[in-house]
Design goal:
The protein is mostly helical and 370 residues long. The protein has two domains: 2-184, no CATH class; 192-368, no CATH class. The protein has helices at 2-28, 32-50, 59-73, 75-86, 91-101, 104-111, 133-152, 155-199, 201-218, 225-235, 241-261, 265-278, 284-294, 296-314, 338-358, 364-368, and strands at 116-118, 121-123. A two-stranded antiparallel sheet has the order 1-2. A hairpin with a 2-residue loop joins strand 1 (116-118) and strand 2. Helix 1 (2-28) packs antiparallel against helix 13, helix 4 (75-86) packs across helix 7 and helix 11 (241-261) packs parallel to helix 15.
């Protein structure tokens, strides 16, 4: 009986993991090409800045920044649309809900000093730009609310009344419940990092490298950014962003191995492009279009990221300002232990590549055929 229970638990866990992976792949896959494109734009911008072709703060810089950052800032809107299709909900209503969360007045409320309430119900200040969890939860909830509306509203009025009812109910619930969920989880992760790094930089590096890309999947990595920004403001340097380098490059190494193993030209092209964008600091294409879908490359990348970040942590690698590790942002990491930082990046990339080349990817042919 105990053995049967264990088998049932394993089967349930595997089924749950498969459903999560299927969900994330479904909502991100339609926008993968956009992710690749803005990643290239971001790399071009950083190269122009580092080479002093344009100066930070100039109007040219601000326009190019808008081109490369707007997609990620407004990604809840894109995810609302794709998630609605996955959950069989009305995509334009979902997009309005996401747009409401990013509306300038809402953003100002969230960044202001005054208490926020909705009919005397307190609301936590949460930033929804570039967030993932709140909008996915919101659209999932909306899909059930729509079904309820279709049952109780006469067919003549269902198309007219369902969208405003969904917006009136889902937006407040997202602000009150779903938004704070992501904030609390991110805050908790930040406190864990601070404790780990004070205990052992090597252990902190390994664990951060191991889970950093998993955090990216759910948007939880944003919760660690305030630590990096605060470190730069208080100490003039930061030890957290260097730990992001190896896992970012590891995704590229795993995707490159997949590209070499793949048979179809289309999937090879996707994997090669995704691998390239990781070198610009953008891992979402490699994550959602290649590695997560195949599972095994994701595991290899996480292991390699942990090993590489352990090296960066052990040698106390630093960043002189806030920047995600990429080939275009290497000057930011030239303060202390720059050579070990480069070694950490190389270990992340090439170890993930080697592990993915060695192991068998069971579902590669199945994914390629889709």
């Amino acid at each position: 009986m105990s053995k049967d229970n264990n088998e049932n638990n394993k089967s349930f866990f595997k089924s749950a993991v498969d459903k999560v992976i299927d969900l994330l792949s479904s909502v991100f896959l339609p926008i993968i090409n956009l992710m690749v494109s803005v990643g290239i734009l971001k790399g071009i911008l950083e190269l122009l800045k580092v080479s002093n072709v344009i100066s930070q703060g100039s109007s040219t810089y601000e326009i190019l920044t808008a081109m490369s950052d707007s997609f990620f800032y407004f990604i809840p809107v894109f995810l609302a649309f794709t998630a609605a299709k996955k959950f069989k909900a009305e995509p334009f209503t979902a997009a309005v809900i996401a747009a409401t969360l990013l509306y300038p007045n809402i953003t100002n409320l969230m960044t202001g000093s005054e208490a926020i309430t909705f009919f005397n119900i307190p609301i936590k200040a949460v930033s929804y730009s570039a967030s993932i969890i709140p909008i996915l939860l919101a659209v999932y909830f909306m899909s059930y609310l729509e079904k309820l509306c279709k049952k109780i509203i006469p067919e003549t009025f269902v198309g007219m009344l369902t969208p405003p009812i969904c917006i009136l109910i889902v937006v407040p619930i997202t602000l009150i419940v779903f938004g704070p969920i992501g904030m609390y989880v991110g805050s908790w992760m930040a406190k864990v990092y601070e404790w780990l790094y004070s205990l052992s930089p090597l252990i902190a590096g390994f664990l951060i490298g191991l889970v950093q890309q998993i955090m990216v999947i759910f948007g939880l990595h944003w919760g660690l950014f305030p630590i990096a920004l605060n470190n730069n403001a208080v100490y003039g340097f930061d030890t957290l962003m260097p730990l992001f380098g190896a896992p970012i490059f590891a995704q590229g190494g795993a995707a490159l191995a997949v590209a070499l193993k793949a048979k179809t030209k289309e999937f090879k092209s996707i994997a090669f492009s995704a691998s390239f964008t990781t070198l610009l600091g953008i891992t979402e294409p490699a994550l959602f279009s290649v590695n997560i879908r195949l599972k095994t490359p994701m595991i290899c990348a996480c292991i390699a990221g942990g090993v590489g970040s352990a090296i960066a942590g052990f040698f106390g690698c630093r960043a002189t300002t806030f920047a995600l590790p990429a080939l275009t942002t290497l000057p930011v990491f030239m303060s202390k232990s720059f050579v070990p930082f480069l070694i950490a990046l190389g270990v992340g990339f090439f170890l993930a590549f080697a592990l993915t080349m060695i192991v068998k990817i069971e579902n590669l042919e199945e994914i390629e055929s889709k």
